[in-house]
């Protein structure tokens, strides 16, 4: 296999042919440009290149047209004819049509295999961002996760978290002594946000069987990397859910993969389409965490590529870590646009043959200004590049073709049927039922003993024995919080509840530790 992924170039009006060196592909990258300038095709040819080099890929299909990766392009396709001419123009001599190995995924389970994680694995930080909670509400959520981790109440799906929040509200007074003020108003606000998430279809994300990362890092029988396509066209209706899921997936990769240093090629390449959604309205603490993950995950052999309309959509500290860059045209209709165009041009290593700023403004559809990392990770001189054509079909496959592909794939049946094992909801329900049963028995016993006790007291009065009555009613005292929790932990110390729960850099639960 070649050490480079051919991107394009060639022709008299273009410079040196451009290729992405696999050794530096885990140094991350950026694909930027205005709508309709060719970003999707660039994403498609990079995915093909990585797959052919044996590198698994994960990408989101925002527009619904990347499913064509699963089908070979054809010369009689109305869009592929000009591609043959382009291949000849840029010297792409071994251009041919072929399909790629693809697995389809979908958070809603409609256009791909279901993708799930558990509430515990998501963690409080990302879940708070997903629910758009205030600082006080996030504090309550952290209390819920602390109780879950320490007291052996697994949070697998939304009903587990909802049940635990109800229990916290009922025991707010005793919990406030240990964790600080527990406001029932904040609990109610969280419950309402959970209801909104459920109405948006987000409940399908949480549950079991949870996604195994190994299933995203497979190769086919020919050694080609699997291209994992997440259907995101419907998901874009809930941008917070989309962004939070991708951040969770990135954090899981960071926590679970071992250090590999600088491999000859990445172990996985991750594409963030519509990258601006990851950072819009995100608190600084979360952006700082994402920056830390992006900086450190390179040593895990994972390359992260952001796709967005404008480089300014990506925070500067993260943008500075993106060494491989493909910049499609940017429009400059306003003073702000011109300023951002100038700033984008200044991030490239200058080429004396042309003005980078003018080139970014002038390149046509399917053209780009590119700069790839070269020997020792040095940024290459910026070049105007004609992007190579894809070998797979440009545009989506049919629903019938997608369904047939899914049913014949390795993942068929593994995640399709949800599981609902015993977790916080069932445990708390059992405790409530047991407490209600014991209270009912005690009340019944008291009622049965009532006449006998009255007769006994009356007999004592007749015998001249003084009987004193309490001036206040005695109430049955509930077992102390610590005592109740201790009994529950001793009873339920099995499986994951018997291990210390440790959370990672984005708050997700470590697995297999």
Residue share in helices? 40-55%
Element-level helix/strand string:
EEEHEHEEHHHHHHEHEHHEHEHHEEHHH
Uncertain regions spanning at least 5 consecutive residues: 469-477, 488-500
Spatial separation of the terminal alpha carbons: 36 Å
Computed structural class:
alpha/beta
CATH architecture of the largest domain: 3-Layer(aba) Sandwich
User: How are the strands of the largest sheet arranged?
Assistant: 6-5-7-4-8-9-3-10-11-12
Describe the structure.
By secondary structure, this protein is α/β, with parallel strands linked by helices. The chain has two domains: 4-116 and 213-397, Rossmann fold (3-Layer(aba) Sandwich); 125-207 and 402-436 and 479-513, no CATH class. 40% of the residues lie in helices and 11% in strands. The protein has 17 helices and twelve strands. It has a ten-stranded mixed sheet with strand order 6-5-7-4-8-9-3-10-11-12, with helices on both faces. Helix 4 (124-131) packs antiparallel against helix 9 and helix 6 (158-170) runs antiparallel to helix 8 (184-199). It is elongated and about 115 Å long. The model is unreliable at 469-477 and 488-500 (pLDDT under 50).
């Amino acid at each position: 296999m070649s050490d480079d992924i051919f991107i394009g170039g060639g022709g008299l009006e273009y410079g040196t042919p451009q290729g992405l060196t696999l050794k530096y592909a885990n140094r991350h990258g950026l694909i930027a440009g205005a709508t309709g300038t060719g970003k999707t095709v660039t994403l498609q040819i990079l995915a093909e290149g990585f797959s052919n080099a044996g590198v698994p890929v994960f990408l989101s299909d925002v527009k619904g047209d990347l499913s064509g990766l699963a089908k070979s392009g054809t010369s009689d396709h109305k869009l592929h004819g000009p591609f043959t001419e382009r291949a000849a123009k840029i010297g792409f001599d071994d251009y041919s049509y072929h399909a790629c190995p693809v697995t389809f995924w979908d958070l809603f389970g409609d256009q791909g295999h279901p993708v799930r994680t558990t509430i515990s694995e998501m963690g409080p930080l990302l879940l708070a961002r997903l629910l758009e909670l205030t600082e006080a509400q996030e504090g309550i959520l952290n209390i819920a996760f602390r109780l879950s981790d320490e007291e052996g109440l697994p949070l697998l799906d939304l009903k587990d978290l909802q049940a635990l929040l109800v229990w916290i509200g009922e025991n707010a007074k005793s919990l406030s002594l240990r964790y600080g003020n527990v406001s029932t108003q904040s609990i109610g606000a969280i419950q309402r946000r959970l209801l909104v998430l459920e109405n948006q279809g987000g409940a399908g994300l949480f549950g079991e069987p949870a996604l195994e990362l190994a299933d995203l890092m497979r190769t086919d029988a020919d050694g080609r990397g699997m291209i994992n396509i997440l259907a995101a066209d419907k998901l874009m209706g809930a941008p917070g859910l989309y962004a939070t899921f991708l951040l969770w997936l990135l954090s899981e990769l960071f926590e679970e993969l071992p250090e590999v240093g600088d491999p000859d090629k990445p172990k996985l390449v991750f594409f963030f389409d519509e990258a601006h959604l990851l950072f819009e309205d995100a608190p600084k603490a979360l952006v700082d965490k994402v920056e830390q993950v992006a900086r450190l995950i390179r040593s895990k052999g994972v390359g992260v590529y952001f796709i967005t309309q404008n480089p300014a959509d990506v925070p500067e500290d993260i943008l500075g870590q993106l060494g491989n860059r493909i910049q499609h045209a940017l429009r400059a209709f306003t003073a702000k646009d011109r300023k951002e165009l100038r700033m984008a041009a200044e991030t490239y290593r200058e080429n004396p043959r042309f003005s980078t700023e003018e080139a970014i403004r002038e390149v046509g559809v399917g053209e780009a200004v590119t700069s790839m990392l070269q020997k020792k990770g040095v940024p290459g001189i910026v070049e105007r590049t004609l992007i190579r054509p894809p070998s797979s079909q440009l545009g989506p496959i049919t629903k019938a073709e997608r369904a047939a592909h899914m049913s014949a794939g390795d993942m068929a049946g593994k995640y399709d049927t949800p599981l609902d094992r015993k977790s916080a909801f069932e445990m708390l329900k059992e405790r409530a039922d047991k407490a209600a049963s014991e209270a009912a028995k005690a009340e019944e016993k008291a009622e049965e003993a009532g006449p006998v006790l009255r007769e006994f007291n009356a007999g004592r009065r007749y015998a001249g024995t003084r009987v004193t009555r309490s001036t206040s009613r005695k109430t049955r005292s509930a077992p102390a919080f610590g005592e109740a929790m201790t009994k529950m932990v001793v009873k339920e110390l099995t499986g994951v509840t018997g291990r210390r729960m440790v959370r990672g850099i984005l708050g997700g639960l470590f697995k297999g530790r």
